[in-house]
Amino acid sequence: MDVRREEVIRLAGRVPTRALVGPTHTISLQSLSAEGVVLLGRFRGVEDGSLIFGDEVPEHLRFADEVSANTKRLVDEYIERAGLDAPPAEDDPAETVEPRLPDPPIRALDWQASDLGTVIWCTGFTGDFSWVHVPGALGADGQPIHEDGVATVPGLYFYGLEFASTRNSGIVPGIAKEAALLVERLVENSASLASTA
């Protein structure tokens, strides 16, 4: 969980989404499909009363598998580096089950004929920083420009951001470490200001 943001991006090509983890087991796209969940591509819009979907399901499966494999590799490397006496890795049944994908892929779905009663639209989220009116604090995408939570604008800090510095950033286990780091930086900043006064 302490893998640096830049290392995560180098391995995956982008900041990956958080893994789905159940209370007692992994939740993979493959296992969801094997349990009857119909995997669809990205929602593209509505045409003539039908919901239109992209064809990214194989790409999403591949990407999720690559992220999982990279994470396992990092764990194995840590075990070896630290000289830990750990049991050998075992295949995760949630990742070895064959996915059950619609054949042919579902690219359009007539929602009325399908008798859909509920739509759960999971889009992910990013922070809304439109209230931050500090020149140079936000990028063109409206997100903070920072390194490890320290903004490019002196005296401005962003903490609790998703993958701000490591995988732990933005989740409960990362709070203590990032809070301590923030306090350390505030103290350093105060000392620096006091010495120039």
Structure keywords:
197 residues, mainly alpha, 2 domains
- What is the count of DSSP helices, taking H or I runs of 4+ residues? 5
Distance between the first and last residues' Cα: 40 Å
Q: Domain count, please report it.
A: 2
How many strands, which pairing sense, and closed or not: the largest β-sheet?
Answer: 3 strands, antiparallel
Shape: flat
Low-confidence stretches: none
Count of individual beta strands: 5
pLDDT averaged residue by residue = 81
Q: What's the gyration radius in Å? A: 22 Å
Return the structural class: mainly alpha
Order of helices and strands: HHEEHHEEEH
Determine the fraction of residues in helical runs and give it as a percent range: 25-40%
Assess the beta-strand content as a share of residues: 5-15%
Side-by-side strand order of the widest sheet: 1-2-3
Q: How do the strands and helices of this protein lay out in sequence?
A:
Elements: H1 5-12, H2 29-34, E1 43-47, E2 50-53, H3 57-82, H4 93-96, E3 108-110, E4 146-147, E5 150-151, H5 175-196
Antiparallel strand pairs: 1-2, 2-3, 4-5
Brief summary:
This protein has 197 residues and is mainly alpha-helical. It has helices at 5-12, 29-34, 57-82, 93-96, 175-196, and strands at residues 43-47, 50-53, 108-110, 146-147, 150-151.
Description:
By secondary structure, this protein is mainly alpha-helical. It has two domains: 18-110, no CATH class; 127-190, no CATH class. The protein has helices at 5-12, 29-34, 57-82, 93-96, 175-196, and strands at 43-47, 50-53, 108-110, 146-147, 150-151. The chain has a three-stranded antiparallel β-sheet with strand order 1-2-3, with no helix packed on it. A hairpin with a 2-residue loop joins β4 (146-147) and β5 (150-151). The radius of gyration is 22 Å and the shape is flat.
